[in-house]
Specification:
Order of helices and strands: HHH
Distance between the termini: 17 Å
Helix content: over 70%
Radius of gyration: 16 Å
Number of domains: 1
Strand content: under 5%
Number of helices: 3
Number of strands: 0
Structural class: mainly alpha
């Protein structure tokens, strides 16, 4: 995800005068977030299954759920934007592109 964000902001920055490029870059990050959300959902389901079948610690389920909620929040912020917003407006510091 970090690489997708970095590449999207680099490309959008190189074409700052083209609004469609900003939209395309935003959409590419949204697709990556959607894919990661799907993987997080699968992981949560696997943890739930392990808990039911083997009595594993439910803390992993909670962590997977919290991560999924965080991704959904990022997705909402980005989806509501009309273009690719400044990374500081929505992106956690660990994922922000470095100048």
């Amino acid at each position: 995800l970090r690489d997708v964000i970095r590449q999207a902001y680099a490309y959008a920055g190189a074409h700052a005068d083209d609004r469609l490029v900003g939209l395309w870059c935003r959409d590419s990050v949204l697709r990556s977030l959607t894919g990661l959300m799907s993987l997080a959902e699968d992981l949560g389901e696997r943890f739930e299954s392990l808990h039911r079948q083997l009595g594993n610690d439910p803390e992993n389920q909670a962590k997977a759920g919290a991560f999924l909620d965080h991704l959904r929040g990022l997705h909402r912020l980005l989806a509501d934007a009309e273009h690719l917003p400044a990374s500081t407006d929505w992106c956690p510091p660990a994922l922000r592109p470095t100048p």
